[in-house]
Amino acid sequence: RLQGDWSSDVCSSDLNVAKSKSKSHAKPKPKAQEVVVLVGTRKGGFILRSDLRRKTWKLEGPLFPGMQVHHFISDHREPRKVMYATANNDWFGSDIQRTQNGGKTWTGTTGGVRYEEGSGLDVKRLWHICPGRASEPGVVYCGVDPAGLFRSADGGETWSEVKGLNRHETRPKWNAGAGGMIVHTILLDPDMPKRMYVAISAAGVFRSDDNGATWIPRNKNVRTDFQPETFPEVGQCVHKLALAPGVPGLLYQQNHCGMYRSDSAGDDWTDISAGMPSRFGFPIAVHPRNPQKIWVLPLIGAEMRVVPNGSLTVYCSTNGGKNWKTQTRGLPTKNAYHTILREAMSTDTCDKAGVYFGTESGQLYHTRDEGGEWHLLAGNLPPILSVEAALL
Predict the structure, then answer these.
(1) 326-363 burial string, b = 16+ CB within 10 Å, else e?
(2) DSSP code, position 310
(3) Residues 202, 177: contact at Cβ < 8 Å?
(4) Do residues 291 and 245 lie in contact, with contact meaning Cβ atoms separated by under 8 Å?
(5) What is the pLDDT of residues 296-328, one digit of tens each?
(6) Distance between CA atoms of 4 and 57, rounded to whole angstroms?
(7) Which of 76, 82, 94, 178 registers the highest number of CB atoms within 10 A of its CB?
């Protein structure tokens, strides 16, 4: 069953870059024609499409049936044509599925995503995909389990290790979380052309200022309540990391041990968990143009990974985490013991931003008015692992 909000608001076609600086020589982007939500599940990938009003939706799929799709994303450089999915199977292994024609046909890689022989490491699962910068056509990054970062220079066909991270001197101190020891977030800083970030569970946040050659841990003031040392250099179990638009160096993270904000590109962190029902959760989403507006979905804790009180409640802050308000209109608030995973929340770039999240029970929810009212887009999907929205 698919449904949408009936508001008359439409999306702008040029809002995909919240902080972009106009350049007279820049090639104009094609006008957006539709909103697309890419959903990765434990049994394949699905695509939901709507016109710019987001009034009604069509569901396509499953793609890669039977595969666990940890991340499914379009390439911002050619969003109408190029998409990537990390497809995993417990028996047949893992590979990246790629399309260059909008999903009509899909191909895998040449040689897979593999650690070098003699490294003592074997890739168990592929997790996160991050297309490169607009100035780097063909560059794509992939995060894997056990924790590693890989880079492709040919659109995802062949892959090589980013050894500066993969052989980091602190690696012996990294540990696996419940989902494994994974590079689950890769962020490219829009203000610093050589700066990038990764988040590793459980090792923490790392930053590179030389395009991946070297990496420094950036976990000051982030707690590790599950270890003897409360504030170590590494070992933090960051669950999701997000860059805010328009303010250089502004980052947010949802952690195993709290919600945090950094105004210094990760050099230090401030705890912004006050007012939340717990310090534990997985996803976080930032407004595409307002760097102070964020959404999270707290869970009870590590031993009970469901929403508190059986109430599916989104928490929103409009001042960078100083205060939080609940958003529940349209969501089940009784006997709703849902789990929302780290990749399963996203925003679109419409005039009133849409926010999307999926549950491990297979429900996909959406708001067209930034949380004023939520709607069920799809109610009977396999367990949802990732959600990515885009204007194409």
Answers:
(1) ebeebbbeeebbbbbbbbbbbbbbbebbbbbbbbbbbb
(2) G
(3) yes
(4) yes
(5) 999 999 999 999 999 999 999 999 999 999 999
(6) 7
(7) 94
Q: Which of 338, 342, 200, 199 minimizes the C-alpha distance to 282?
A: 342
Residue 11's pLDDT band (cuts 50, 70, 90): very low
CA atoms of 143 and 146, how far apart (whole Å): 9
CA distance 183 to 191: 23
Residue 19 has pLDDT above 80, yes or no: no
Q: Name the token pair of 108.
A: 């895998």
**Residue partners of 353: CB distance under 8 A and separation at least 6:** 287, 288, 289, 347, 370
Q: What's the half-sphere exposure (Cβ side, CA atoms, 13 Å) at 211?
A: 9
What separation in angstroms does the CA of 244 have from each of 88, 113, 217, 300?
A: 30, 30, 20, 26
**pLDDT for the residue 27:** 57
Distance CA 192, CA 62 (A): 38
221 burial level (CB within 10 Å; 0-12, 13-18, 19+): exposed
**SS3 label, residue 117:** coil
Taking phi over 0 as left and psi of -120 to 50 as alpha, with beta for the rest, 367 belongs to beta
CA-to-CA dists, residue 247 to 19, 86, 262, 317, 345, angstroms: 8, 31, 11, 17, 22
Q: Is the dihedral of CA 199, 204, 205, 209 positive or negative?
A: negative
What is the per-residue DSSP string for 313-379? -EEEESSTTSS-EEE-TTS--SS------TB-EEE--SSS--EEEE-TTS-EEEESSTTSS-EEEES
Tokens describing residue 42? 């434990």
The structure tokens listed for 297 are 């979905």
- Lookup result for tokens 């820049």: 26
User: Tokens standing for 37?
Assistant: 């939500």
Structure tokens at 217: 């841990």
CA atoms within 13 A of residue 252's CA, in its CB half-sphere = 25
The sign of the dihedral angle between the CA atoms of 226, 305, 239, 140 is positive
Q: What is the DSSP letter of 262?
A: E
Tokens for 121, please give them.
């490491």
- Res 287 pLDDT > 50: yes
Mean pLDDT of 7-14: 36
Structure tokens that stand for 304 in this block: 């009970």
Measure the CA–CA gap between 259 and 209, rounded to whole angstroms: 25
pLDDT at 14 over 70: no
